[in-house]
Specification:
Layout lengths: L5 E13 L2 E16 L3 E3 L6 E9 L4 E4 L4 E4 L5 E3 L2 E5 L6 E5 L12 E3 L7 E3 L2 E4 L2 E3 L1 E4 L8 E5 L6 E3 L2 E3 L4 E6 L5 E3 L2 E3 L9 E6 L5 E3 L2 E3 L3 E5 L7 E3 L2 E3 L4 E5 L7 E3 L10 H6 L1 E2 L9 E3 L24 E4 L10 E3 L2 E5 L11 E3 L9 E4 L10 E3 L2 E5 L11 E3 L9 E4 L9 E3 L2 E5 L11 E3 L5 E2 L4 E6 L8 E8 L4 E3 L5 E5 L9 E4 L10 E3 L2 E5 L11 E3 L49 H11 L5 H6 L4 E4 L5 E6 L4 E4 L3 H11 L1 E3 L1 H8 L11 E4 L5 E5 L6 E4 L2 H10 L2 E3 L1 H4 L8
Parallel strand pairs: 2-4, 3-5, 4-6, 4-7, 5-8, 6-9, 7-10, 8-13, 9-14, 10-15, 13-16, 14-17, 15-18, 16-19, 17-20, 18-21, 19-22, 20-23, 21-24, 22-25, 23-26, 24-27, 27-29, 28-30, 43-46, 52-59, 55-56
Antiparallel strand pairs: 1-2, 11-12, 31-33, 32-34, 35-37, 36-38, 39-41, 40-42, 44-45, 45-47, 48-50, 49-51, 52-53, 53-54, 56-57, 57-58
Length: about 725
């Protein structure tokens, strides 16, 4: 018969009549029984709840119990869960499930039982996420039925029971049947069992991956009764002691050789005492061996400071069979068990050399057959074969087939023939797909007669207009009017032409030489324009007056402006604007560049690479030696002598770096990148015009004539002592 959940509120009012006084005293209880068919909450305000007949939470329903609620069960009643139970109290305000007897005893009520459709708990590692849970609760005086307890299961999802007190059950504190992956964490399980020898704190059957940790399991008839074992169970970090018959006992014969219950406290560290309270292989050879070491050295506090005995080192092993020999010539095996029990480490032999013999292939996975070829054959390839790493065998890669040529769908034609009698024809050059036949190519069409092309139907242009120095021009042809066949020209063709070398119209000169005793000074042509020209009359000599005094070396001037607009040299430059620099007043006593370099080489001390790097790319002026100028080349960190304009020009041409005109122009309008700091740049598209990139402002300074280059380099110079300059290596060109 279907029973519905009913609630009765019993209110008893006692009235005491006194002088002008009325005292009301109210005591509320909530009686409950029957089925819960929708989500329901038991409130603290209606506590205690008196269960007068067994309450059932049906599938799809949830019972939520608030902290502090007391649930009292009449004789032979219980709480059956086929839906979801959410009973979460507080550490200082537990939910209590107990007997409704004034003098309660073990087995007064049935207990809380989860059935096969109940909603199991889900969790992340040991952290609860959702589903049924019992936490911060006290469950006592239940376990009336055989194979039952204060909390029991008969299938269903995993249990999550934590931080609770589970005591005084007639049979088991917790009985788990066919409910894998359950977690029992942080509980006190005490004084359970005694109705039969098969009773105690916790037991489980027909399930696996049970986690039991951080519990105190004491004063029960048997602490833990275990069945259907696998070593994925976790029974660690518990206090298990002072249980009357055994602290740990196997229920049924086990196939597992060793069963780990390590890192628990057993009430003693004496192995004989621990062994006397464990019922395993040594008591019944059909059972597994309990591996309990390491053990807690004192009752566990679960505070991270607990200490444990040290496991012994393994000395012998039982292995699996050797695996198949692999391609690398090795084979492996696994450790099935090791001795002594609970040991760690040691040196098991898990790998050995072997001779690999590839197996013969017996089966293959193929690609699809190819299309049938015109030879009546089709092929396929092997995608994979087995067994793995095999060779040989007899795969079928070719078979006969009946070839049917495909129908042609596209064609490449010849040009249409000349229009004749209003018709023109063409032929097929090739057709697709390959080796096709048939189809509907268009080989005839109507036409209107068009005249035959003659030379008058073509015009041409030459590029460049003037014949270049390679003696070749490109002739472009354009068809005029409508015509067909006859004379034809390509759109472009290369033709030879008669190149005429141009006459030079402007020149770039060296500096004028010193005035000789005949009153004449000379210069040489450095370059001429236009490019590759010849002839004309460059001015290489002029009259002059012999000077008796030379101008002293100019001092450093850091106000030189960077180059912006280039002014090229021409034949009208005036010799008087050129300055010949010298370190001595008499040309006859002038020290040559070679002498200066030779002398400075002999005076070099130990090379200071840090100093060389710091002044890299700079012009240095030897302030203690007549302002001798040196250029530190960034690529070698060596200094090069700037004694005369010719030296500056020689450095500019030999150490310069080519650069495109467009790139150079963009940098001159802003700043040069740091990678070009201190470099001499040559505009390869503008007659090799030179620029010096000052590393101190990354601006470019134009180096026009040799004397100009010498002057710019000297004016951008930095002063340096003899001591420091002689720590920089000398380079020569």
């Amino acid at each position: 018969m279907k029973k519905q959940f009913t609630t009765f509120l019993i209110t008893t009012t006692f009235l005491t009549l006194g002088v002008f006084a009325l005292v009301n005293q109210v005591r509320a209880e909530t009686e409950i029984s029957g089925n819960i068919t929708s989500d329901t909450s038991w409130k603290l305000a209606n506590s205690p709840y008196i269960v007068t007949a067994t309450v059932q939470v049906l599938q799809g329903s949830r019972l939520t119990i608030e902290p502090g609620v007391i649930v009292k069960f009449n004789q032979n009643t219980g709480l059956n869960i086929d839906g979801e139970l959410y009973a979460v109290g507080l550490a200082d305000n537990l939910i209590i499930f107990t007997s409704n007897n004034t003098s309660p005893n073990k087995g007064d009520w049935n207990g809380i039982k989860f059935f096969s459709n109940s909603t199991g708990a889900s969790f992340d590692n040991d952290e609860y996420i959702d589903g049924s849970i019992i936490k911060y609760s006290k469950i006592e005086y239940g376990g009336r039925l055989d194979y039952g307890g204060n909390i029991s299961t008969s299938g269903g999802g995993p249990l999550f029971i934590s931080d609770s007190i589970i005591n005084n059950s007639a049979h088991y504190g917790i009985y788990i049947d066919s409910t894998s992956n359950s977690k029992i964490i942080g509980n006190r399980i005490e004084n359970n069992g005694g109705a039969t020898v098969w009773s105690g704190g916790i037991t489980w059957l027909a399930c696996h991956n049970i986690t039991i940790k951080q519990n105190t399991i004491v004063n029960n008839s048997i602490g833990i009764l275990a069945g259907n074992l696998i070593n994925s169970d976790i029974i660690s970090y518990n206090n298990i002691y002072n249980n009357q018959i055994h602290n740990f006992k196997f229920i049924t014969p086990q196939s597992l050789k060793d069963y780990n219950v390590q890192y628990n406290y057993w009430g003693s560290i004496n192995e004989s005492i621990i062994d006397s309270k464990i019922y395993d292989y040594f008591d019944d050879i059909t059972l597994s061996k309990v591996i309990y070491k390491p053990v807690g050295l004192a009752e566990l506090k679960f505070d991270g400071a607990d200490t444990f005995s040290q496991p012994s080192t393994c000395t012998s092993w039982i292995y699996s069979n050797w695996g198949t020999c692999q391609l690398d010539g090795t084979q492996t095996r696994n450790v099935i068990s090791s001795s002594p029990g609970g040991c760690v480490g040691g040196s098991p032999v898990l790998t050995q050399s072997c001779t690999y013999i590839p197996p013969t292939c017996t089966s293959w996975i193929y690609s699809d057959w190819s299309s049938c070829s015109s030879s009546g054959q089709q092929t396929r390839t092997i995608t994979s074969s087995s067994p793995n790493g095999c060779t040989g065998g007899n795969p079928v890669l070719t078979q006969s087939c009946i070839y049917t040529p495909p129908t042609c769908t596209s064609w490449i034609y010849s040009d249409w023939s000349t229009c004749s009698n209003g018709q023109q024809t063409r032929t097929i050059i090739s057709a697709q797909p390959t080796n096709c036949a048939g189809g509907n190519p268009i080989l005839n069409q109507s036409c209107t007669s068009i005249p035959v092309c003659t030379e008058d139907n073509w015009s041409s242009t030459l590029s460049p207009t003037a014949c270049p120095n390679n003696g070749q021009q490109t002739k472009g042809w354009t068809k005029l009017g409508q015509c067909q066949n006859g004379v034809s020209h390509p759109s472009e063709e290369t033709v030879n032409c008669d190149y005429q070398i141009p006459t030079c119209t402007s020149f770039t000169y060296s500096n004028w030489s010193a005035c000789n005793s005949s009153g004449v000074q000379t210069r040489t042509v450095i370059s001429a324009a236009p490019l590759n020209c010849s002839g004309s009359n460059p001015i290489k000599n002029q009259s002059c007056q012999i000077e008796t005094e030379q101008t002293n070396i100019e001092t450093t001037n850091n106000n030189q402006e960077p180059a912006k607009n280039v002014i090229t040299n021409n034949n009208n430059q005036v010799a008087n604007n050129q300055t010949e620099l010298s370190n001595n007043s008499s040309s006859e006593n002038k020290t040559t560049s070679e002498d200066v370099v030779s002398e400075e080489k002999s005076l070099i001390t130990k090379i200071d690479s840090s100093l060389s790097t710091r002044v890299s790319g700079n012009i240095l002026l030897q302030v203690e030696k007549n302002g001798e100028g040196w250029y530190v080349y960034p690529d070698t960190k060596k200094k090069y002598y700037l004694g005369r304009p010719a030296d500056a020009f020689n450095i500019m041409r030999n150490l310069g770096l080519g650069i495109k005109h467009s790139e150079l122009t963009s940098y001159l309008n802003s700043k040069f990148p740091s990678r070009l700091s201190g470099k001499i740049l040559l505009d390869v598209e503008q007659n090799g015009e030179a620029y010096y990139v000052n590393p101190n402002d990354l601006k470019g300074y134009y180096l026009n004539r040799p004397a100009d280059a010498f002057k710019v380099m000297r004016e951008q110079g930095l002063g340096i002592t003899n001591t420091d300059i002689r720590k920089i290596d000398i380079g020569e060109i």
